[in-house]
Amino acid sequence: MHDEAGHAGNWLPARRLPHVSEIAGLFERPKRGQGGRALCRSHSIADLRDRARARVPRMVFDFIDGGAGEELTLRRNARAFADVTFAPRVLRDVSVVETGRDMLGFAAELPLWLAPAGMTRAVHAHGEIGAARAAARAGVPYVLSTMASTSPEVLAAHAPDARRWFQLYLWRDRGFSREIVERARDAGFSALVLTVDVPVAGERLRDVRNGMTLPPALTRRTALNIARYPRWWFDMLTREPLGSAAVSRPGEALVDRVGRIFDPTATLRDLDWLREVWSGPIVVKGVGSVAGAVEVAERGVDALVVSNHGGRQLEHAPATLELVPAVRAAVGAGLPVFVDGGVRSGEHIAAAIAAGADAVGIGRAYLYGLAAGGERGVDRSLEILGSGLRRTMALLGAPRLDDLDATLLDPVPGCERSGSGPR
């Protein structure tokens, strides 16, 4: 018998020379992937947010990142998702996970859509076109804002494969509203998303303090910060001047533009008018209460979005995730219910669907990607969300989206904890 103390290393296998195939990878160039080396090192939306902060001027980052007032509603949206507790099922066959969902007649590959965002060419030169092209590759709809820096016609020409929805504000000039709806129809947009939570502009203090205008104005306040981002301002100076494809006055403050254009007299009756000028699906975005959801549903809309504008309008609004179960119960199973505000991961998407939503809208999540790396950055944000959703569904024992339900949540958002958890 050998002395174990004296021969402590004898159990190790004999040394050998490695085969060339085992070390070849050490000498390969790193794979850049679709998003470049830095984007491939971004493994979460938070990583993309950090990279976005480093690549665009402060006023542009705050335009993406900020909310209304002291940003209480913004934080509530995030906190509602952070407070989610799952009650996973075990011993379920999750060898195949299916994330497809029909949304307004479109077979989407993920239960999400890219929410409308104004003037995204201020974020990156690829702007709306880059975002729409990325959405097409991911198999999800893209919603073009009325306040976009790209017109419906130009987007259709450069992103023909995208499933395009058009976002509309009701303008003081109904004739203009009709005109832009007709332009969207003629450009092949398949659904209309009416935003109803901006009768007046929210007080976005970051934009006010930064002197943010669209297009961004060069002033003493902004010049020093902009100078730190030569690639950004070079793109701004050497490409087509930035402006709203619908209406723009150079150097106009955001709050002034909203006050000049948007109609504070709009009512539920305007949904009837809109149905007369648009024959396709109508989605109402900006529902912030159960009563509001019922009123909108009774007008015969095709879907609604529980939304507080990403916390950019009304302070002290409820977290959207916490409204979803009650809204779903109030409007029934037949009306598609979407939700946006605070979605940053696959876990968040799974939680929203389990709470009763059919799909989610993402805004900041893809805008961080756009700021971080243009079109490739949006690709990366969608990759992160898609892979995260598939992983979460497998870990929850839910191989299909229809398997995501309230029994996986304890407590259900907006409800008290059950104590023992759902079974």
From TrEMBL:
This is Alpha-hydroxy-acid oxidizing protein. GO terms for molecular function: FMN binding; oxidoreductase activity, acting on CH-OH group of donors. It comes from Pseudoclavibacter endophyticus. PANTHER family: 2-HYDROXYACID OXIDASE 1, S -2-HYDROXY-ACID OXIDASE-RELATED. Its cofactor is FMN. The keyword Protein biosynthesis does not apply. The active site is at residue 309. The keyword Oxidoreductase applies. Belongs to the FMN-dependent alpha-hydroxy acid dehydrogenase family. FMN binds at residues 116-118, 145, 195, 285, 307, 340-344, 363-364. Glyoxylate binds at residues 167, 169, 204, 309, 312. PROSITE patterns: FMN_HYDROXY_ACID_DH_1, FMN_HYDROXY_ACID_DH_2. It comes from the Bacteria. InterPro entries: Aldolase_TIM (IPR013785), Alpha-hydoxy_acid_DH_FMN (IPR012133), FMN-dep_DH (IPR000262), FMN_HAD (IPR037396), FMN_hydac_DH_AS (IPR008259). Pfam families: FMN_dh (PF01070). CDD domains: alpha_hydroxyacid_oxid_FMN. Keywords: Flavoprotein, FMN, Oxidoreductase. Residues 37-414 form the FMN hydroxy acid dehydrogenase domain. Coiled coil: none annotated.
